[in-house]
Amino acid sequence: MPKRTDIQSVLVIGSGPIVIGQAAEFDYSGTQACRVLKAEGLRVVLVNSNPATIMTDPEIADATYVEPITPEFVEKIIAKERPDALLPTLGGQTALNTAISLFESGALERHGVELIGADVEAIRKGEDRQLFKEVVAAVNARIGHGESARSVICHTMDDVLAGVEGLGGFPVVVRPSFTMGGAGSGFAHDEEDLRRIAGQGLALSPTTEVLLEESILGWKEYELELMRDKHDNVVVVCSIENFDPMGVHTGDSITVAPAMTLTDREYQVLRDIGIEVIREVGVDTGGCNIQFAVDPEDGRVVVIEMNPRVSRSSALASKATGFPIAKIAAKLAIGYTLDEIPNDITEKTPASFEPSLDYVVVKVPRFAFEKFPGADPTLTTTMKSVGEAMAFGRNFTEAFNKALRSLEQKGSQFDFSRTTRGADECEALLRAAAVPTDGRVHTVMRAIRAGATQEQVFAATRIDPWFIDQLFLVNEVATEVADAERLEPELLRHAKRHGFSDAQIAEMRGLREDVVREVRHALDIRPVYKTVDTCAAEFAARTPYFYSSYEEETEVSPREKPAVIILGSGPNRIGQGIEFDYSCVHASFALSEAGYETVMVNCNPETVSTDYDTSDRLYFEPLTLEDVLEIVHAETLAGPVAGVVVQLGGQTPLGLAQALKDNGVPIVGTPPEAIHAAEDRGAFGRVLAEAGLPAPKYGTAFSYPEARDIAAGIGYPVMVRPSYVLGGRGMQIVYDEEALAAYLEQHAGLVADHPVLVDRFLDDAIEIDVDALYDGEELYLGGVMEHIEEAGIHSGDSACALPPMTLGGHDIKRLRASTEAIARGVGVRGLINIQFAMAGDILYVLEANPRASRTVPFTSKATAVPLAKAAARISLGATVAELRAEGMLPATGDGGTLPLDAPISVKEAVMPWSRFRDTHGRGVDTVLGPEMRSTGEVMGIDAVFGTAYAKSQAAAYGALPTKGRAFVSVANRDKRAMIFPARTLREHGFELLATSGTAEVLRRNGVEVTSVRKHNEGEGPNGEPTIVQLIHAGQVDLIVNTPYGTGGRLDGYDIRTAAVSRGVPCLTTVQALSAAVQGIDALARDEVGVRSLQEHAQHLNAARAQS
Amino acid sequence: MTSVPASPATLVLEDGRTFAGRSYGAVGQTLGEAVFSTGMTGYQETLTDPSYHRQVVVMTAPHIGNTGVNDEDPESRRIWVAGYVVRDPARRHSNWRASRGLGEELAAQGVVGISGVDTRALTRHLRERGAMRVGIFSGDALADHAVLLERVRSAPQMAGADLAAEVSTTEPYTVPAIGEKKYTVAAIDLGIKGMTPQRMAERGIEVHVLPATTTPEQIYALDPDGVFFSNGPGDPATADHPVALMRGVLERSTPLFGICFGNQILGRALGFGTFKLKYGHRGINQPVKDRATGKVEVTAHNHGFAVDAPLNRVSDTPYGRAEVSHVCLNDDVVEGLRLLDRPAFSVQYHPEAAAGPHDAAYLFDRFVSLMEDQRA
Questions:
Q1: Which residues bind Mg(2+) 3 (chain A) (predicted)?
Q2: Are residue A32 and residue A58 in the same domain, yes or no?
């Protein structure tokens, strides 16, 4: 039965900003879905507030709304677009929850919109723990397999305490209902734990509900990805086994596909249960993910949960198997059956089959605990990783070692250079390994090297003995390599077959990496490339989706057209996320159109770039020099190679540029020398000096006395940081000598190896970001963004507006001239991003990055110009003039000359505060600073700034309140600037609360305000609550709290963490307060409408044509 | 090197292509037909499936032996494969039911294997060139390539091989019904897998498993409600005795069910031809459509031959009208036959699974319905 004819238009809901637990994988799935629906002739309406997504590219949908994903805004879109159907299963929990809200409010019925993909009942059965337990019980009654962990539902703390008794005592698992990525869940080992975790869980759950469950810690954990069509055909796309046993969120676990340690009988039991569960839940058309725990002692199977939608694991499963789950889910939703959909990879066989893998896939998580110093690094059932890398190999060890090096973190590969021996060390290591943490597998490996037995490792970790043996195998190979008299060819090949990198072998042999590589090449020990083909070679594959292995036969076929190899950005991390994938994907599209064969290299399964449809060829490989050189070699044998693009994937490929060039690989676009000129402070200083551009004074110190002298010369405040860092790691603003001394003390370890940079900190400066294209002759100013927060907050964490709100034509002229001078001086061919600070009337240059920046997708969407595509073309020789003539760039003008009535776009950063707790269960501080900590971003776009800002806030954190209680407490230096916006809030009818100092200033200025007690004052004699108590009691609707400096446990800490746990908007700068007031103004007038990007672009282009 | 297992071994295909590896299981020499299986689980069932008799099985899944060997999962009394080709055998197994390792089991049963082979390259070769004869050599059996190739080329071909009698039970035995006994079925063992009588017994059937050489008289002495023809190895074109036996059953309109080889025999009994597939279907992920319901089931396959019957029309046969009931969606191969005028049907694949999905278990219910209808 072919597609339904009663659906002409579909609304797809995306997942919004990247947050922990809901990341780029939903861009991948949403993009696939939109493309499929559009190809089927349907009108696709999309809403997603995240500009850094491919799905929000104007070509992907017919009407793209970059608007907040809230029921209110989505209903406005529905009212305007009148879609026939709503597809909510591809935008993660956000989309599902929004769809449920729209259903419950009657909005769907009012507008005649049908929910497709999964109906409300199915969503509820999948998501509601009690209903799901009934599902599992029904399945058990039918097939005699599968059960739920024994559990009890609780709505109050009394329920919770009673519940534990009923389950037979501690430990118990606490899981709040309806939260994303397991937020708020955890293990309680005693009553104190329980009160903390369950208390927070009850608060987090929208239904004030938590589930207490018997502990199945240490069991084996599995996932199945299933798809079902309307004819009740069901297939299991992939099985995934967690290397880390139960107790660690699957997003934080090392996972392996296919399952490695199940017999067929056991696997078929899981499959049978999975199929019956998807039927019982009633997912009629689409995919779902089911998680199982298996008792290693007797095979007892507990069904943990199911997601009645495309999930993170679905993205992983799609990449691991070549079976495009999201694409097929979209087709099923509009009426196709599995057997009517062809398998893209074979083209000849249908999608109604189950992929067979002849390789092993390993995914490893990437964490960012170093960004949240107080946070508890123990891994629990709450997901904490910020990204992941995946790798293929022909065996587990090969895949695992490749995955580890794909993480691109220092220490992510096994370190065989040091060995601690001795029973005490071994004992200590085993004890450490018993607690799951980031890097536990390294601890296990050290324990093995210290002499632990397989049994001891199992007793400590409960990792399956088969996996433990594989770790022993890795160690044995390492030992052989280290101990061999000579590195014989057979031994070298053996090590490569187990995934050892040249760098690891070099370290063990006391050689240089390039020497190992030379030897290896001389011996002709090189990887071959195998195809991910869904069918274990049973049928010929048409899709060149490759991974490397040290095997006999390669499958890379020759080609005629010149190839461009695009290096992606690797695992998502704070500071390098989906924005870079966006640029890589755009480059691939643009270069393919320009007649090149595009070759993508990346190892991040969450991305669009690693979709086999995106580029002509995909290499799912680590982004290390070794791996990239081998790919270049393989592609050079296959046909002409025009060059390698390193500019678009962020710091990862940029860091490889020079070494690639040194190895004779042609780099297109900005040459490595130019990259050096921008990144090296000395070289960059010369560029600035030649152009006559000022930079803030700075100095380099190797000791405290040196730093003190430099700081005295520059004048406080100063910004200090270790010299080698990225993403503002370890960066701090210090306001006096004492703080400087404390900083150096705290970072003594870093300073020993690397000098400290001391920069003048421009207090009260306006920070400005510029994205521009340069072809050697002409500059195209892509966009100028004015930060809403003042300088000193990492650009990735600060909100910004485009076009800039307070800069005049003269300022833009200066920015343009400076940008051009830097681009020319550095030698850029493609994109450059420059950060400026305007202090007084001086325009300082803070830094320049000769690559696509984090803001490229935002700038592109705000100005309706595809900057990354243009950059890719310029890299390969096109000029700005040619691209203007082609129509890729506007015929005249640029991002600095936007018409006056151009829409205003506001970018806001989204922070992961609520994910992190310290070891006492308290939240981590939420103060913004020079170190980037946001995981994602949203965009608000509207005709006026206030509304755009309000939208950005609604999209990031929930709508700004238009009435209620606002609490204001600011640092002394902010007090003057706070008076006017506070007065406006009062005029809007807000009741103002303030602590004594702030209240005094407001009263003196004639603003009515109620004084409240500070947290450290404690409750008053008559039970007057403190501000923190008021926030926890839900009595406060808006919080303005600016910090006094950074570091330590400050007064505002408890206020801000309370704000996070209650979800109250919390503004930490006066500038944000001013913007929020404008937003509240707009909201109060109820003038907030919705408009698609296509409409904005049409409007903008019409205005451009007139000017 | 401690982490490199065992002694060198060589795999030689009849077209001369050679793969080097390490010995796995028994050391020595084995010859057979090279086929590949794409199942990711169920190696124990695969090894003990009599249909693999005289075949050297290449596992496309790289890690084999992870769950060791237990005493519950074998499908017959012994390992039948002629040789075993894997990439990465487990050094240590892990499963609560396992009693020993696969490597030792292969060695104990004298099965010569090879590991460390680029099994994907080998699979692609077989896919492109078709199943062919192969030899695995290790230890004293190693010799010059030309010598080994000559040994491979002198091995018997699979086409024309009559092997059912070699794997069949020699003595009849009974698998009692589980719970209340409702039916009696005579199951002709042409290489039957243990799970097949089990699936029938679960449905209240007492199964009398009979040797391949059984006569009609022996069958009807049991007064069966139904007769079953099992899977098995070899070329169906040689299976004259089972074909004749089945014709006798068809003539008497006893409810009849066939699996795999049994399907080919039904094909021949009805007058259709059989032919050898280029490289066969071996795996547990094959999509088969039940044309009666339009539903797709994911099924376990192990067949190198297939029935040549018209897909899109009803055929007239000596036993009335017949149609193709099931078809493989990958390549339109006939996967099931059904008589419209008599109670007989068969499938080319394995509803008993073991290894594989249970999607097609409903076929045993269909067999029960046939017997029920016949009684009524």
A1: 835, 847
A2: yes
**Whether residue A920 has pLDDT greater than 50:** yes
**Rounded to whole angstroms, what are the CA distances from A440 to A254, A430, B120?**
10, 10, 33
**A289-302 residue pLDDT tens:** 999 999 999 999 99
Beta-bridged to residue A834, according to DSSP, are A770, A848
| CATH number where A817 lies | 3.30.470.20
* Minimum-distance CB partner of B4 among A464, A494, A552: A494
**How many CA atoms are closer than 13 Å to the CA of B55, on its beta-carbon side?**
32
- CB contacts of A357 in chain B (<8 Å) are 40, 61
Indicate whether A2 pLDDT > 80: no
Q: How far is A268 from chain B (nearest CA, A)?
A: 6
Which of chain B's residues have a Cβ under 8 Å away from the Cβ of A492? none
Which pLDDT tens digit goes with each residue over A65-77?
999 999 999 999 9
DSSP string, A4-43: -SS--EEEEE---S-BTTB-THHHHHHHHHHHHHHHTT-E
pLDDT of residue B136 exceeding 80, the answer is yes
Domain shared by A977 and A1039, yes or no? yes
Q: Which residues contact A1085 (CB under 8 A, 6 or more apart)?
A: none
* Ramachandran region, residue A812 (left: φ > 0; alpha: ψ -120 to 50; beta: rest): alpha
Tell me if residue B260 is catalytic: yes
Chain A: nearest CA to B226, how far in angstroms?
Answer: 27
Distance CA A215, CA A150 (A): 9
Host H or E run for residue B34:
strand B29-37
pLDDT at A1048 over 70: no
Asked whether residue A903 is assigned to any structural domain, the reply reads no
**Is the separation of the CB atoms in A717 and A735 below 8 Å?**
yes
Instruction: Give the model confidence (pLDDT) of B25-60 as tens digits.
Output: 999 999 999 999 999 999 999 999 999 999 999 999
- B123-152 residues touching A, CB cutoff 8 A: 123-124, 127
Claim to verify: residue A30 and residue A68 sit in the same structural domain: yes
In a domain, A961, yes or no: yes
Q: Is the ipTM of this complex over 0.95?
A: yes
In the block, which residue shows the tokens 């309109």?
B253
Residue A1049 has pLDDT above 60, yes or no: no
Write down which residue in A78, A95, A118 finishes a domain: A118
Q: Do A892 and A770 share a structural domain?
A: yes
How wide is the angle at C-alpha A1006 spanned by C-alphas A1001 and A1009, nearest 5°?
65
**Cβ neighbours around A891 below 10 Å, total:** 9
Q: Do A855 and A983 fall within a single domain?
A: no
Catalytic: B350? yes
- For chain B, list the domains and their CATH numbers: 8-153 (3.50.30.20), 164-375 (3.40.50.880)
Q: What is the pLDDT of residues A849-858, one digit of tens each?
A: 999 999 999 9
pTM score:
0.94
Q: How many domains does chain A have?
A: 5
A782 shares its domain with A875: yes
Residue A1041's domain is classified under what CATH number? 3.40.50.1380
- Please give the single-letter amino acid code of residue B14: E
Cβ separation B38–A231 shorter than 8 A: no
Q: Is A1035 inside any structural domain?
A: yes
pLDDT per residue as tens digits for the range A578-631: 999 999 999 999 999 999 999 999 999 999 999 999 999 999 999 999 999 999
| Range B180-205 average pLDDT | 97
Q: Is A352 within 8 Å of B97 when comparing Cβ atoms?
A: no
Asked if residue A871 and residue A755 are part of one domain, the reply reads no
In a domain? residue A373:
no
Looking at the structure, tell me whether residues A826 and A688 fall in a common domain. yes
Structure tokens at A499: 């995934």
Has residue A1072 got a pLDDT over 50? yes
CB A650 within 8 A of CB A408: no
Do strands A641-645 and A667-668 pair parallel, antiparallel, or not at all (unpaired)?
parallel
Q: Could you list the residue range(s) of the whole structural domain that residue A748 is in?
A: 698-760
